[in-house]
Design goal:
With 676 residues, this protein is α/β, with parallel strands linked by helices. 46% of the residues lie in helices and 16% in strands. Strands 1, 2, 3, 5, 6 and 7 form a 6-stranded antiparallel sheet that branches. Strand 13, helix 15 and strand 14 form a beta-alpha-beta unit.
């Protein structure tokens, strides 16, 4: 079966998630306490690998418990499953009603009972005492209206009298709230048929039994449907739930493990270790005796046979794990060897590059992690790959971000055999190439858990991991690029691109085509981004205005291997203004015209109109205009609107640019090309 949608209701902080569509691999993203774990645990108990049922005292919504828990058998988890062709064929053979069924909806309730709905819908009513009473009354009415053949009136009268008395007696003995059994109806049919000895009597009495036969056929159809229900429940995929990812140690002291298992079975880490022993087919009684066998020097044939059997079990389990884990791991060919040395159970690992056996705990954290949870999956799912769904609650939190990204690729690979759902709030566990697989879990206005299916929630905390994942993707693209010029913001990008076009259209040298301009999103991000680029050994130059960079930061740049003339460019180097920005490289008349078009009521006479060569003010022209807009109009200066208009006019009429502006940008581009 393939799970297509699920729904969780009446569980902890969940009122109703609604139907949540899922794929082979689906990620549930949300902040802590949003309800991700509750969704997974409720869903896992639809058919749990660990056998745990629902506990209404601990899991029913607390605020509703006193008033509602006993009112009905509340539904908890539901799943809509697509049937495989083999399963469709099987249930069709079990119940004729299911010949067209292609999917089923299964719901489990707090009592552990199941309800099943078929699609297309099928159904047959259960035979109840009123149904049987009605059939008897129909038979009685039919008997009263019987007409005897010529000369058989007296004989038929005696038959009718006996049957009517018998049926009235049977009808009066049926409890209204009891159960009807097929044997009970069969006895009625036989009692009626036993009154017929001659052919004419059979011809008359056979129609009397037809209402009873209809009930028998209804019961047989109902029983077939119930058998189909049992088949569906028996073939539900196992849900294997992981919420603790304890790594198995390479050496396990068997007596200590047994004592802990008996005295504190809920001890963290015990589950995976217990699965390790179950995987080699050793029960606790066997384990308790292993220490006395030592190296099997005893000549006792019973002990010798036990040790030989143990060795075979260990070898078989080792080979099995090696083969199956190789299909999952997909990297090096890993070989496991299980061994018992006195009181210790040991796990040794080797691979195709290094045949030397190394303790499991000396291997990478990623290998230990995957081996441990894979072992639990393998044992608890009964090695039935096609019948298991993995629910991984916050997997890989202890792994490095690069290992978390590897984990998602690992999940992608094994999801072709088993559906995998995992919850996370780590941006490194989100695959932006498949956002259709992401479901956000968030807290609704009523305080209950919600799951997004068709649109993103407005809750920024829930979306933050997605935003961080996007930022990581963008950073990777930037850092993996070639020659780059890092600027403060998007306005610098627009104006540099416009002037590059203008210079080329006038036959002058512009920026090298190999250079990519990258806005850093503000001065605060500019230097960290540039430093990361230099760490990646990428050619990079940084172009900044002096107004936004504290002098203490500029003083530290040489120690970071960024200094003016060696990766660092200041706009002030091309105009006589320490706080110059890119706008100061243009003539003030051109920039003022663009400002006036955006802010027609602004008195630009209060802003210096000296040429760039004549200016020596600390602050650039854009900063001066920003102060004027805030002071005179009480609003924030939208620098981007002016930059957008200026870049459009440059591209529309590059021939109208003055020679000084062309000369300054020519020098700037020449210096950028030289540095990068």
């Amino acid at each position: 079966m393939q799970l297509a949608e699920f729904r969780v209701q009446n569980y902890k902080i969940i009122e109703d998630t609604g139907w949540v569509p899922v794929q082979n691999l689906t990620a549930f993203v949300g902040k802590n306490e949003s309800g991700k774990s509750a969704i997974f645990r409720a869903l896992s108990k639809l058919n749990p690998s660990d056998g745990e049922g629902y506990d209404g005292l601990k899991e029913f919504p607390r605020q509703r418990y006193a008033a509602e828990i006993t009112r009905t058998d509340w539904p908890v988890a539901s799943g809509r499953f697509h049937l495989t062709p083999d399963e469709q064929r099987d249930i069709s053979a079990i119940s004729e009603l299911c010949s067209e069924v292609r999917s089923v909806e299964v719901t489990r309730h707090y009592t552990g009972s199941y309800s099943i709905t078929y699609h297309p819908d099928v159904g047959v009513d259960h035979v109840t005492p009123p149904d049987l009473i009605y059939a008897i009354e129909s038979a009685i009415e039919h008997i009263r209206n019987l007409i005897a053949p010529e000369g058989k009136g007296e004989e038929l009268g005696r038959i009718k009298e006996g049957l009517l008395a018998f049926l009235e007696e049977q009808k009066s003995g049926i409890p209204v709230d009891g159960h009807v059994h097929k044997r009970q109806i069969a006895d009625l049919i036989n009692a009626i048929k036993s009154r017929a000895n001659e052919p004419w009597q059979h011809d008359i009495l056979d129609p009397v039994t037809e209402p009873m036969y209809r009930l028998v056929r209804q019961m047989e159809t109902y029983e077939g449907l119930m058998a189909a229900n049992r088949y569906i429940i028996e073939h539900l995929p196992k849900f294997v739930y992981f919420d603790q990812y304890n790594v198995i140690e390479s050496a396990i002291h068997i007596p200590t493990f047994i004592a802990t298992l008996k005295s504190h079975p809920d001890t963290p880490g015990l589950r995976a270790t217990h699965c390790l022993f179950r995987h080699v087919n050793l029960d606790l009684d066997q384990l308790d005796r292993l220490g006395s066998h030592k190296n099997a020097v005893d000549d006792n044939p019973i002990i010798r046979r036990q040790v030989d059997e143990r060795s075979i079990l260990l070898s078989t389990a080792s080979n099995l794990m090696t083969k199956k884990f190789e299909d999952w791991w997909g990297q090096r060919k890993i070989r496991f060897r299980y061994d018992i040395d006195g009181d210790y159970f040991r796990v040794w690992v080797s691979d195709d590059l290094d045949p030397s056996e190394i303790e499991l705990e000396q291997r990478s954290a990623g290998l230990q992690y995957f081996f441990s949870f894979y072992l639990v999956f393998l044992v608890e799912s009964g090695d039935a790959y096609q019948d298991s769904i993995l629910l991984l609650d916050e997997p890989g939190l202890q792994l490095h971000p690069t290992a978390q990204q590897q984990a998602t690729r690992f999940f992608e690979r094994i999801s072709h055999q088993n559906q995998i759902f995992y919850s996370t709030h780590s941006p490194f566990m989100i695959d932006l190439d498949h956002l259709d697989r992401v479901r956000t879990v968030y807290e609704g206005e009523d305080g209950t858990t919600k799951v997004s299916t068709s649109e993103w929630p407005a809750d920024r905390d829930s979306l933050f991991p997605l935003e961080a994942a996007l930022a990581t993707r963008i950073a990777e693209k930037i850092l993996s690029g070639g020659k780059q010029l890092v600027v403060e913001d998007i306005q610098d990008l627009w104006l540099l691109q416009a002037m590059n076009y203008a210079l080329r259209s006038r036959g002058k040298t512009g920026l090298s085509p190999e250079i990519k301009i990258t806005p850093a999103g503000g001065a605060a991000n500019l230097f960290p981004l540039a430093l990361m680029m230099t760490a990646h050994k990428k050619p990079v130059a940084v172009l900044i205005s002096g107004s936004n960079i504290p002098s203490a930061v500029i003083d530290k740049l040489p120690s970071l291997h960024i200094r003016e003339g060696n990766g660092l460019l200041l706009y002030s180097s091309f105009v006589n203004r320490q706080g110059a920005g890119i706008e100061d490289l243009f003539s003030p008349e051109l920039y003022h015209r663009c400002v006036k078009d955006i802010y027609p009521d602004l008195p630009l006479g209060q802003v210096s109109e000296k040429s760039p060569a004549e200016r020596n003010e600390e602050r650039g022209i854009a900063m001066q205009i920003a102060d004027l807009v805030e002071r005179r109009q009480g609003e924030h200066f939208e620098r981007w609107r002016v930059a957008e208009l200026l870049s459009d006019r440059i591209c529309e009429s590059p021939q109208n640019l003055d020679d000084e502006t062309i000369e300054r940008f020519s020098r700037l581009f020449h210096e950028i090309n030289r540095l990068v």
